[in-house]
Amino acid sequence: MKQPENQSKKYSTLFTDIDEGRVKVPQFQRDFVWTKAQTAKLIDSIIKGFPMGTFILWKTKERLRHIRNVGNIDLPEPDVGDAVFYVLDGQQRITSLYAVRKGVRITRDNAEVDYRDISIDLDIEHNQEDEIVFAEPDPEHTTISVYTLLNASFKELAADYADHLDAVSDYKTRLEGYDFSTVVIDSYPIDIACEIFTRINTGGKDLTLFEIMVAKTYDQERNFDLAERYAELISDDSTSRNLQTAGYDGIPPVTVLQCVASNISLEIKRKNILKLDKQEFIDQWEPVTDALFKAVDYLRSHLGISVSRILPYNAILVPLTWFFGQKGNRGVSSRENAMLIQYVYFAALTHRFNSAAETKVSVDIKRMTDILNDVEPDYKGELPKFTVEDLIRENFSVGNATSKMIICLLSEHSPKSLKTNGKVILDNSWLKVSTSKNYHHFFPKAFLKNQTEFEPWEANSLMNIVLVDDYLNKREIGAKAPSAYIAKFAEDNSDIAETLKSHLIGDPEVSGIVGDDFNTFRTQRAEWILAEINSRLYPFKVKYEET
Fold this sequence. Notes:
The chain has three domains: 5-200, no CATH class; 209-372, no CATH class; 388-534, no CATH class. With 547 residues, it is α+β, with helices and mostly antiparallel strands. It has a six-stranded mixed β-sheet with strand order 1-13-3-7-2-4, with helices on both faces. It has 23 helices and 15 strands.
């Protein structure tokens, strides 16, 4: 990288560069928020010769998503191959100065802001320290608009301001002759330029990887805007297929970036994503997002992960998307299905992506290659081995991958409403906290609180959680004993035994419900759930033992 270059630019030179499209404001800059009063103060400082900070410009031939106009001024695109100077620091100042020079009118908060109103008071002696530039002209004083001062000919100024011509001439010279300090960083990589922006900007805004990639991958000719494409992917406002309709609108943009990156280079670290070729990224967007939908469909239909809120890790989508991208339109075989399910349970129950997720995803993509080649992936002895006691002692938490995986297991069995035997529908908006409407403690906390032999934490055992969709269930249950409320529901639900099976709960007579025996209940349920887990973690071992 070249060393930063210090340059001085006159007012006219700096804004000619903007007029001709050589200086651009990148889209990741915050909105133009300065008031006219702040702009007037800036003009006043320039006239007085005060320093007003340095503009930091990034010179590059990369084309970023940028602001294409200022107010009502359309700015041209530079010629292909020409360098562009992106403003990394000084956007508010440079936009303010340009707005004054052009006499911009903008609409802010439903009101028009006219920069032609910013005026110099000619009745105030210009050698005094008092402010002479104001956001609005004083009707009782002789004033000149800064816009007029910078754009009118000397002949026009002499005719209109004959009595103040010396002051007008002096102010015009001071403004047009002011040396603006600029620092140009030439041909720096985009990630370094954005790091500079993050460090120097005073608004405290850290650029995300997604914001950088939005800037980098913008392509007007190909009509590709990553921000818009992601919004279409997520929102049900889109006319095309979207993740919100599929229940996966909680998937963050970085996961989608990782899916695209894995399809190009198998590496998903930040530095690798930033090095992706723009055209290759755009080429891969459609096939990768198509594969992403296939991965989502698979999780919903084969693992009970009907909404993104219960997906143990977003990172699981990356190797699965890669797999379905390679698989194309060929169906998944029963053997591949068993290996994919095994992988998801492995990733969740080992808490695989709690750390070093980017490195581990690359390893897991190699496991996807094995599956495609009909080879059982090697987990190097890492497959977890749970006991009944482990499951009983597992605390329920909505942010815990083990809890989420068990919830997915329950969801896979299509749990029925205890009251009506209708299908429970999970909803992302209900699954944010452990007290949400979809989660219910089968032995109510309030009931167990009165059972002196149990510690408070035991009520929150994962084995005590069932999925419901009817808030009345909670209201009707309250602190009642399971024997009481299940008997009550059985009066209306003649299939209560089958309903309980859909929650992986045995017959009320033997599962501890009739006698309100919490120990028997959670032990029998843990045995059932453990068998379900092992059949997925060790599908081929179970198969061999059966044969």
